[in-house]
Design a protein that fits this description.
The chain has 6 helices and 22 strands. The chain is an alpha+beta fold. The chain folds into 3 domains: about 140 residues, no CATH class; about 100 residues, TATA-Binding Protein, CATH 3.30.310; about 90 residues, TATA-Binding Protein, CATH 3.30.310. A hairpin with a 2-residue loop joins strand 21 and strand 22. About 35% of the residues are buried.
């Protein structure tokens, strides 16, 4: 599935990350708090009642839990192969019990393999969900069997014609990580889930899904510095020079919709709605803006009046409306008063200060990067050993 480009958060955050990791590798004085982070993915008439047209996160999670839990065992061992096709042993990656990948090599026309799998996979219980044109001169099919999702990417690479096979198990409780105040349409089917992102296939027309979120977002706050609007899904007709593309499904000409809101639960949600014929693909990305989700001790405060950019276990990033020196002095005063001690001298680069602090078995790193005379990006990473 082609995933649209997300709005990139302030790139200074990533600069801080690079600096911080470099410093830590040299000083070995602090390991930043680990986090489960990403990088993806995804008619009946509208009901007159919101209660009938909306599946809450917990209801949807319960419904999915009731389905049979399939196991993504090594698929290459039972995957059907047409005559003349073979699995490239160098490409097999099936160590993860939740999914895997491998590549098929063959000499027959791609169209013959597309037809072969259209008939062979249903005999093994797979159900074709949808197909998309891809960027390697062919078509990608998406299949489902219980809660295992399979993609077959037909096309070309540098060595010739290939079918790139990927599969994964979608955990039955994956929806429970979505914010409870974020609704999903009743026809939404979860196809992929990472720690902070979810993809859905919705058996409902694009206009209806867009209208659903237009109504649901009436009391949500728009994200700051985010350009909501239309775009494409990042697809195209690129493929290796000299390769002849096979006939592919025509991409839906309607533009994708992108939105960003802050929910009452202080979760920022980026939403991409992609038209797909009579159905819709939905991509959801969530960033917590609640400092309490970082789990920082009470004696490590967020700078007063700061705008939170992200919060996750062991880490919080925010923008402070003050100079670099003011923010530095604030944390020196607060942490010293709370019994923290500097672990080595602060490390200073142009426009950036990194301070490591210790208190018993606790460690914290504070990285401050100036964005201007009275504006900073601050990242606080905490660990308890």
């Amino acid at each position: 599935m082609s995933t649209p480009n997300r709005t990139v958060k302030n790139r200074n955050v990533f600069i801080i990350w690079i600096i911080a990791l470099f410093v830590l590798s040299l000083a070995c004085s602090l390991t930043a708090g680990q986090s489960d982070t990403p990088p993806s993915g995804r008619s009946d008439a509208q009901s007159t009642s919101a209660a009938k047209s909306t599946a809450t996160v917990h209801e949807a999670a319960s419904a999915q839990t009731e389905s049979v839990e399939a196991s993504a065992e090594a698929l290459s061992k039972s995957f059907p192969l047409p005559a003349g096709a073979e699995i490239d042993p160098e490409t097999v990656a099936e160590d993860d019990p939740g999914g895997g990948a491998f590549t098929l090599r063959f000499t027959a026309p791609i169209s013959e393999l597309v037809d072969f799998y259209a008939h062979a996979l249903p005999t093994q219980g797979w159900i074709l969900r949808y197909a998309d044109a891809n960027t390697i001169g062919g078509v990608t099919q998406f299949w489902k069997k219980e809660n295992v999702y399979l993609s077959l990417q037909f096309g070309y690479d540098a060595a010739g014609a290939v079918v790139k096979v990927k599969y994964q198990t979608v955990a039955a409780d994956a929806l429970k990580k979505l914010p409870a105040d974020f609704p999903i349409p009743a026809k939404a089917e979860l196809t992929n889930a990472l720690d902070t992102s979810w993809d859905f296939f919705i058996d409902q027309e694009y206009a209806a899904v867009t209208a659903f979120y237009t109504k649901a977002s009436s009391d949500w706050s728009p994200c700051s510095n985010y350009g909501q609007g239309e775009g494409d899904d990042g697809g195209g007709s690129k493929f290796p020079p000299g390769a002849t593309p096979m006939p592919s499904p025509t991409r839906d000409s309607r533009p994708a919709k992108s939105y960003c809101w802050v929910l009452p639960s202080q979760n920022q949600v980026e939403l991409y709605i992609l038209p797909h014929g009579a159905a819709t693909l939905l991509h959801v990305y969530v960033t917590s803006l609640n400092p309490s989700d970082s789990g920082l001790p009470a004696d490590i405060p967020v700078y007063p009046g700061a705008a939170i950019q992200s919060a996750e276990p062991g880490m919080v990033t925010f923008q402070a409306g003050a100079s670099l020196e003011m923010v530095k002095a604030f944390y020196e005063e607060k942490l010293t008063a709370a019994g923290w001690a500097l672990d080595g001298l602060p490390i200073e680069a142009e426009g950036t200060i990194i301070m490591n602090w210790k208190k018993g078995n606790q460690s914290v790193m504070i990285s401050i990067t100036a964005l201007g005379a009275s504006n900073c990006i601050v990242m606080i990473a905490y660990e308890e050993s």
